[in-house]
Amino acid sequence: EQSYMESVVTFLQDVVPQAYSGTPPAEEKEKIMWVRFENADLNDTSRNMEFHEIHSTGNEPPLLLMIGYSDGMQIWSIPISGEAQELFSVRHGPVRAARILPAPQISAQKCDNFSEKRPLLGVCKSIGSSGTSPPYCCVDLYSLRTGEMVKSIQFKTPIYDLHCNKR
Prior knowledge:
The chain is mostly beta strands. The chain has helices at 4-15, 49-54, and strands at residues 32-38, 63-69, 72-78, 85-90, 95-101, 120-125, 138-143, 149-154. Strand 7 and strand 8 (149-154) form a beta hairpin.
């Protein structure tokens, strides 16, 4: 049985162009700009029962792999079996950064306006949904449950990375 890293290496070998083999590729493949492993509510099977039904092979939560391309990004779930499943894909230009937002700690005074849309994904693309902001100055929030964009947040300066917590 493959370890997580062996499963990921096998997966990346299938996805990444064979640029170092010395032979020209038979077909043009996408250029990977960045890769990130994500630990989030999404792959916590104790908090996300829908995800538990998809990957109910054991107690070990699947690894989430985020891949940024020159024209978009993908999120893959890689369970211990190594059979990758695509969870999300967006193709609207380069993505500088992306993060899965953790579910907030809700108190009696606060209401979660996005509870029906969670888990949420924050994506910093080259051009935001409004199309009027300078490059990389917008974060679009996507629902991983429905695939729709639920909010767009504009900034005055370029975004270089995204960080988030339960607050």
